[in-house]
Design brief:
By secondary structure, this protein is α/β, with parallel strands linked by helices. The chain has two domains: about 120 residues, D-serine dehydratase-like domain (Lyase, Ornithine Decarboxylase, Chain A, domain 1); about 230 residues, Alpha-Beta Barrel (TIM Barrel), CATH 3.20.20.10. Helices cover about 30% and strands about 20% of the residues. The chain has ten helices and 17 strands. Strands 1, 10, 11, 12, 13, 14, 15, 16 and 17 form a nine-stranded mixed beta sheet that branches. The chain has an eight-stranded parallel barrel with strand order 2-3-4-5-6-7-8-9, surrounded by seven helices. The radius of gyration is 22 Å and the shape is globular. About 45% of the residues are buried. The model has no long low-confidence stretch (mean pLDDT about 95).
Length: about 375
């Protein structure tokens, strides 16, 4: 039985955007398409391939559109995301987190057997040996990148000799193919000052470039160097280390990335395309309105949502509980009518997306489509 979304009857209805059952995850189609084109054009201009990160969107429909726009594939944070995208016919998948359990090794081998151009990263001998055993049993060689720690300290082996030894271990296995390196300076994506972000990013990427050079000098080809992000997208190419960019949030943007400035104090060339639409459900107190989007409707670790439209200038959104949000309107004489819709920019887009079943794709005031968040909840 085909799944039917709550707002599906509004597709194509003039003014249907304002009639959405809320809270609803809303994607401005034209803004999304402009963001996709802007990153595509940037990568073409600087000579980088793009393997956009699907942990941001978790959607087969979006992955397909990014590949149609020139991306060579999709990055996935977890095996479950990659399995979901592979089910949808998406190729060129790279799992950017290492795995170390027997169950995960078996899933990787099965995914590799059915998905074209599949790759995964490793940062330990345990992962490499597990991949080799699973790939050997499956009968299809597995492509592996070494994940190098360039300062985030979340995953990744130390750059230099340790990374070289792991690359040699992969290259020596008859069941594995060494494809190159991955490095992600996630700790630098939101550094406020561009000059500081650039200096620190180039230093981090030098570690990655030096490691690549060491591996190549040892006689091990290193065709791919993958990494980078939305916050450093225009610095990543300058280092001349990456062959492909893993940026993901640029397609949507959120409060955190909208606060990032690029060279000369200019704003990001990407615009906010993703919103949470909420409805005013109570307004009995002067200067205060209550909406139907609370803690369960937004990722909360990056603060409160930013009001994009639908409330007086200077109004502020706050969490009023699990199910409700509050809007301080900036004066006792100000009010919002019951049923009014308010559009909010998410504090952090990736985990906010994971709270919803679908994107409500809008063009102007019309709901034009609904795209499932296919990999929602696929955290393993």
């Amino acid at each position: 039985m085909t799944h039917r979304f709550l707002n599906q009857d509004l597709i194509g209805v003039p003014g249907g955007r304002a009639k959405l059952a809320t809270p609803a995850l809303v994607l401005d189609l034209k803004a999304f398409e402009r963001n996709v084109a802007a990153m595509r054009d940037h990568c073409a201009r600087v000579g980088l391939k793009l393997r956009a990160h699907a942990k941001t969107h978790k959607s087969v429909a979006i992955a397909r559109r990014l590949i149609e726009a020139g991306a060579v594939g999709q990055c996935c944070a977890k095996i479950g995301e990659a399995e979901t995208l592979a089910d949808g016919g998406i190729e060129g998948l790279l799992v950017t987190s290492p795995v170390v359990t027997a169950q995960a090794f078996a899933r990787v081998a099965k995914l590799n057997a059915r998905a074209a151009d599949f790759m995964i990263v490793a940062d330990s001998a345990v992962a490499v040996d597990g991949y080799a055993a699973a790939a050997g049993a499956s009968g299809k060689a597995l492509k592996v990148l070494v994940d190098v720690d360039i300062g985030l300290h979340r995953t990744g082996i130390r750059p230099g000799q340790d990374a070289l030894e792991l690359a040699k271990r992969i290259a020596a296995s008859p069941h594995l193919t060494f494809m190159g390196l991955q490095g992600y300076a996630g700790q630098l994506q939101h550094v406020a000052e561009f000059s500081d972000r650039r200096t620190q990013s180039l230093a981090a990427l030098k570690l990655l470039g030096d490691t690549r050079d060491m591996i190549v000098a040892a006689g091990v080809p290193c065709p791919i160097v993958s990494g980078g992000g939305t916050g450093t997208y225009n610095i990543d190419a300058e280092a001349r280390v990456f062959t492909e960019l893993q940026a993901g949030s640029y397609i949507f943007m959120d409060k955190q990335y909208c606060d990032v400035k690029i060279a000369n104090g200019a704003p990001m060339p990407f615009e906010t395309a993703l919103f949470v639409q909420t409805t005013v459900i109570s307004a009995n107190m002067p200067g205060l309105a209550t909406t139907d989007a609370g803690l369960k409707s937004f990722a909360t670790e990056a603060g409160s949502p930013v009001i994009h439209a639908g409330a007086p200038e200077g109004a502020n959104y706050f969490f009023f509980g699990d199910e409700q949000g509050g809007i301080l309107l900036g004066g006792a004489d100000k009010r919002l009518n019951l049923g009014a819709t308010v559009l909010c920019t998410a504090p952090h887009c990736d985990p906010t997306v994971n709270l919803y079943d679908a994107y409500h794709v809008v063009d102007g005031d019309t709901l034009v489509d609904i795209w499932p968040v296919d990999a929602r909840g696929r955290s393993a």
